[in-house]
Amino acid sequence: MDCLFCKIINGEIPSKKIYEDEKVYAFYDISPIAPVHFLVIPKEHISCASDITPENSAVIAHVFEVIAHLAKELKLENGYRVITNNGDDAGQTVKHIHFHVIAGKQMGWSAEQGA
Ligand code: 5GP
Ligand code: ZN
User: Fold this and answer.
1) Distance between CA atoms of 113 and 41, rounded to whole angstroms?
2) Cα end-to-end span (Å), the chain
3) Which of 5, 7, 18, 30 to mutate to test the pocket of ligand 1 (most atoms within 8 A of CB)?
4) d(CA 44, CA 30)
5) CB under 8 Å to 70, separation ≥6 — which residues?
6) How far apart are CA 28 and CA 53, in angstroms?
7) Per-residue pLDDT tens digits for 23-73
8) Has 98 been annotated as catalytic?
9) Ligand 1 atom showing the smallest separation from residue 13 Cα
10) Closest ligand by atom to 8 CA
């Protein structure tokens, strides 16, 4: 399958890895929108949040366990934001579900701007 994030998981495309286990991969975003900006993705190819089902949702729970673990490890004690863009209106550019974790600055809140 021609998927950028599947290629990052299998090492075909290099990335700055933060964490990996049998189900999940985490790496720094190539074009950060905050002082800390990394992505957490399931190794299983799920296209977007709309494709989460009772059969594949366990890995999504695991993604959030990994995010909590990494937030402690990276000392994000002032807070962080988790974002999933789903579909074209939300600006999803890579069709392999991913969770942006952004931190390191005070963030506002609007539908136009993630951070
Ligand atoms: P989306 O817009 O789909 O929610 O987020 C895709 C994210 O992937 C963007 O923040 C973009 O900067 C990041 N990205 C795109 N290509 C690469 C890449 O080759 N390596 C890394 N590390 N991040 C990428
Ligand atoms: Zn993929």
Assistant:
1) 22
2) 31
3) 30
4) 21
5) 18, 19, 26, 38, 40, 101
6) 27
7) 999 999 999 999 999 999 999 999 999 999 999 999 999 999 999 999 999
8) yes
9) 19
10) 1
Is there an atom of ligand 1 within 6 Å of 29 CB?
Answer: yes
Between the CA of 109 and the centroid of ligand 2 the distance, in Å, is 29
8 Å CB contact between 19 and 26: yes
Predicted TM-score (pTM) of the model is: 0.97
Q: Distance (Å, rounded) from C-alpha 75 to C-alpha 79?
A: 9
- What's the per-residue H, E or C state across the chain? CCCHHHHHHCCCCCCCEEEECCCEEEEECCCCCCCEEEEEEECCCCCCHHHCCCCCCHHHHHHHHHHHHHHHHCCCCCCEEEECCCCCCCCCCCCCCCEEEEECCCCCCCCCCCC
Ramachandran quadrant class, 17 (left: phi over 0; alpha: psi -120 to 50; beta: rest): beta
